[in-house]
Specification:
Layout: H1 4-32, E1 39-41, E2 45-47, E3 50-56, E4 63-67, E5 75-77, E6 83-87, E7 91-100, E8 109-118, E9 124-128, E10 131-135, E11 139-141, E12 143-147, E13 158-163, E14 168-170, E15 175-178, E16 183-195, E17 198-209, E18 215-219, E19 222-226, E20 230-232, E21 234-238, E22 244-245, E23 251-254, E24 259-261, E25 266-269, E26 274-286, E27 289-300
Parallel strand pairs: 2-8, 10-17, 19-27
Antiparallel strand pairs: 1-3, 3-6, 4-5, 4-7, 7-8, 9-12, 11-15, 13-16, 14-15, 16-17, 18-21, 20-25, 21-22, 23-26, 24-25, 26-27
Length: 301
């Protein structure tokens, strides 16, 4: 059984040891100080893809959170971990580093720097619209769309438009006016884009369609046939520039005393002879515009 002196000595020793531990912890915390985030980079501006090496110069910390400012998920590192990041999105990116002690993120310190990424060289080019159907003499805006391999828009691209054939006219801004000759023009509009030593081409196919119905032509305009004989009448529709308009439905009719005609223009002469002027009539409607034409028949015995 311990005597009272031994007990007092043990108590005093424990008190001294505890005080020493508290003093050491206080000294450690006081000397180490609060976390201080500090970072630098191997380079601050470049063209995409732009790879940057980052350097962690933080103090009083053992855990670090990096946010590279381009929308990708932040990463966690230790003090000695090498940190690099490759940027493909052009623009200004704020890189932030949060330094903290393990389990004490809310007491950490954050610092940041700016990284500037320029677009890369011209890599993609297309012309909008790539396919165009347009009425004669109507207008359409063509626009070149260009980017680097990551979708960034280069800032120093120059371009020009080139036309092929009778498709129409286009100015340097891409304002196109269709010509007067209907038809299909493959790769008729070309844009050439230049970015330094890089040159690309893109094309659009244009189909110029006829304009509004303007007039009709009938063949034959006059014919001589015998009683009971047949004759085929053909009608063609034109716009004002003499482009033929296809796909219209024609309404044929004949003078009741001259014979009969079907919906395809097949006419059979009646039994009454003589000169039947304008006895064949044709009507057609296109987009609310109606036109008509006639033909004459001389019926002989």
């Amino acid at each position: 059984m311990k005597n009272s002196d031994d007990v007092r000595f043990s108590f005093l020793a424990c008190a001294i040891s505890l005080s020493f531990m508290l003093i050491c912890m206080f000294v450690f915390i006081s000397c180490s100080g609060a976390p201080k985030a500090d970072l630098s980079a191997s380079s601050f501006e470049g063209d995409a893809p732009f790879t940057v090496n980052f350097f962690n110069n933080s103090q009083n910390s053992d855990q670090f959170k990096w946010d590279f400012g381009d929308g990708l998920n932040p990463i966690m590192t230790n003090i000695d971990d090498p940190v690099s990041h490759s940027y493909t999105k052009a623009g200004r990116h704020t890189v932030s580093l949060t330094a903290f002690r393990s389990g004490e993120f809310s007491d950490g310190d954050t610092n940041s720097i700016e990284i500037f990424v320029n677009s890369g060289p011209l890599a993609n080019l297309k012309l909008e619209p790539p396919l165009l159907e347009v009425e004669v003499t109507k207008r359409q805006l063509f626009k070149p769309l260009f980017s680097d391999e990551f979708g960034n828009i280069p800032s120093n691209v120059e371009f020009e438009f080139i036309l092929d054939g009778e498709v129409g006219q286009i100015n340097r801004n891409g304002n196109f006016v269709a010509g007067r000759v209907a038809g299909t023009y493959s790769k008729s509009i070309k844009v050439v884009a230049f970015d330094g030593n890089v040159g690309l081409e893109a094309y659009s196919d244009v189909t110029v369609i006829p304009g509004s119905l303007d007039h009709l032509a009938i063949e034959p305009e006059e014919t001589t046939i015998n009683v009971g004989q047949s004759q085929k009448f053909t009608v063609t529709a034109f716009d004002r520039y003499e482009n033929t308009i296809d796909g219209l439905v024609y309404g044929f009719s004949a003078n009741v005393n001259s014979g009969v005609i079907d919906s395809d223009g097949n006419y059979t002469a009646g039994t009454i002879t003589g000169n039947c002027e304008n006895c064949i009539s044709v009507n057609v409607t296109d987009k609310s515009i109606t036109k008509s034409i006639t033909a004459s028949v001389i019926i002989k015995q």
